[in-house]
Structure formats: structure tokens, C-alpha cells
Design a protein that fits this description.
- With 121 residues, the protein is α/β, with parallel strands linked by helices.
- Helix content is 41%, strand content 15%.
- The protein contains five helices and four strands.
- The protein has a four-stranded parallel sheet with strand order 2-3-1-4, with helices on both faces.
- The longest helix has 17 residues.
- The radius of gyration is 16 Å and the shape is globular.
- 19% of the residues are buried.
């Protein structure tokens, strides 16, 4: 029995995983994402850009359609950083965004040894 087998036997899986959240607004994606990350995981949410990178008050959601592409790039950059650090699980909380964007996340994850699962609340 290898150390990896031993870890799996005790309920720990060394598997690296990315969850892609899907669903309509207000259906529980963010709630589900928080449950999926456990104590060691991270959530990458494009909407966080409008809280942390726009405006002066991080409690305000300063959405601007003009910044959507920048917000998507910002979130993907954060995601890549977490993948390179080996974080797991990583949850991409993006709702019903473009499937091409989802493919980019999935492709990058798989290329770096992660399993990818679509999750709905």
C-alpha cells in the first residue's frame, strides 16, 4: 500500500479538483461554492472584482458593463495563480457565463493535473 492509497483509505483524497458552478441568479451557487471549498479550498468569483477592484468601498457592488471583460481576465488570472499553487478544491462561481470561458477554465485545470466537475446547487 502506498502513502497515497493509505491517505485515500482514511478519507483523504490527494485528487486536485476544480468545480465549475452553473445556475440561474439567486439559485444557491455561492452557498454551494462555500460548502464545496471546505477549509483548504478557494472560490474564484468574477463578481468579486466589482467589490475589490472598483470603487472605494469593498461593501459596494460597483458593477459596470464596460469592465466585464477586465473582470473576467482578473478572475482567470487569480484562478491560474491558485492552480499553480496547487490549491484544491477550486470553485469557479460564475453562473451562466459563456461556455467558451468555462472551456478555458476546464482546459487550464486539466492541463495542470486537475479533475473538473460541473456543479449545480
Amino acid at each position: 500500500m502506498t502513502k497515497s492509497d493509505d491517505a485515500s483509505f482514511y478519507g483523504y483524497s490527494p485528487r486536485k479538483i476544480v468545480y465549475l458552478m452553473r445556475g440561474l441568479p439567486s439559485c444557491g451557487k455561492s452557498y454551494t461554492a462555500k460548502r464545496l471549498i471546505g477549509i483548504d479550498g478557494v472560490i474564484c468569483e468574477t463578481d468579486e472584482y466589482y467589490y475589490t477592484q472598483v470603487g472605494d468601498d469593498p461593501t459596494n457592488y460597483d458593477y459596470s458593463d464596460d469592465l466585464l471583460e477586465e473582470a473576467r481576465r482578473w478572475n482567470f488570472k487569480r484562478f491560474k495563480k491558485h492552480v499553480e499553487e496547487g490549491k484544491s478544491p477550486i470553485v469557479i462561481d460564475r453562473g451562466n457565463s459563456l461556455s467558451a470561458d468555462s472551456q478555458n477554465y476546464a482546459r487550464y485545470a486539466v492541463d495542470h493535473g486537475y479533475d473538473v466537475e460541473l456543479k449545480e446547487p
